[in-house]
Amino acid sequence: MKKALVTGSSGLVGSETVRFLCAKGFKVFGIDNDTRGYLFGKDASTSGVKVHLNNEFKNFFNINIDLRIYQVVKDTFSEYGPFDFIVHAAAQPSHEWSITHTLEDFELNAMATVNVLECYKNFSPKAILIYISSSKVYGDLVNTLPLEELETRFDLPQNHPFYEGVDENFGRLDGKLHSLFGASKACSDIMAGEYGRYFNLPIAIFRPVCVSGATHQGASAHGYLSYLVKCIALGEPYTINGYNGKQVRDNLHAFDLVTAFWEVFQDPSGSYGEAYNIGGGRLSNNSILEAIKEAENILGKRAKVGYSSIHRKGDHKWCIYSSSKFKKRYPNWKIAYDNKQLMKNICKVYENA
């Protein structure tokens, strides 16, 4: 039986990965200590997801350790490895939280990642490793594009070369505002790529914009789409921060991200430090105004919307990144959830609310 290690195994992407790999017959070891509950409070806790995974899958085993402590990560690799597949999904994902907890943000994102990479190199070097980065590593460069303000969104002219999405060559690390979260993710992104290229290890890096789905424990500080739906479903107020709510996000269902991981596992020749933008593109994106309207229509409820004219520092007016590089390398990968299906999937959680 093949063995997999999934960090952040009770989170949105981690739990989707666990379900997928358990169904494939893997023996899956998950590392999760409910950091999300610590970061964003009881409502964002993933402890219930961990219990559900333990009950549902006999081939899943949870390990409660702190990835920031190298020795315990080393002991975990020594005791449970070697692994065939490693998915590093654990992270601190909030821009706002990183501003007030900068040192801890760096430890959770950068130091924890280096610990995983070093133990992978020393104890499971034959495994395929997936590192989940973020489009935020590019900073706010997308705000320099010639965006047009339309009725419900900002968007590019259809004849613009990046209309279908920004490619990997567009981004650069210097001279742009990333947020401290984006900077810590950029550090770990670079380290993952360096381990892949320098040590010739099969590491693939994915840079999604917004990942969502029914199991996302959305909070005001992170997971805007699931949090927005939650507010509308439960009659709680939702505040739009700046840009008149016309800022656009590329939204990818967690299942579709995991199927991209699987493509790499089956053919790791496209890894070895290679980085890929990954997202829903033109099939799955919306502005905040559009997302509110879509959720209202599905739920049959009116949103209680407030507005602040102050946008988040470093926020993007428009953020759609092209998956064309990945699709060219892995042409069998297809998105199962377009925008309509994704919104229905998130809203379904509250159908009896």
Architecture overview:
This protein has 353 residues and is α/β, with parallel strands linked by helices. It has one domain: Rossmann fold, CATH 3.40.50. Helices cover 39% and strands 18% of the residues. A 7-stranded parallel β-sheet has the order 3-2-1-4-5-8-12, with helices on both faces. Strands 9, 11, 13 and 15 form a 4-stranded mixed β-sheet that branches. The longest helix has 22 residues, at 102-123. The chain starts with a strand and ends in a 6-residue tail after the last helix. The model has no long low-confidence stretch (mean pLDDT 93).
Based on the model shown, name its key terms.
Rossmann fold; 4-stranded mixed β-sheet; 18% strand; 353 residues; 7-stranded parallel β-sheet; single chain
Short overview:
This protein has 353 residues and is an alpha/beta fold. The chain has helices at residues 12-23, 35-40, 47-56, 70-80, 95-100, 102-123, 180-198, 224-234, 254-266, 288-299, 324-329, 339-347; strands spanning 3-7, 27-31, 60-63, 85-88, 128-132, 148-149, 154-155, 203-208, 210-212, 237-241, 248-253, 274-278, 285-287, 304-308, 318-319.
Topology:
Blueprint: E1 3-7, H1 12-23, E2 27-31, H2 35-40, H3 47-56, E3 60-63, H4 70-80, E4 85-88, H5 95-100, H6 102-123, E5 128-132, E6 148-149, E7 154-155, H7 180-198, E8 203-208, E9 210-212, H8 224-234, E10 237-241, E11 248-253, H9 254-266, E12 274-278, E13 285-287, H10 288-299, E14 304-308, E15 318-319, H11 324-329, H12 339-347
Parallel strand pairs: 1-2, 1-4, 2-3, 4-5, 5-8, 8-12, 9-11, 10-14, 11-15
Antiparallel strand pairs: 6-7, 11-13
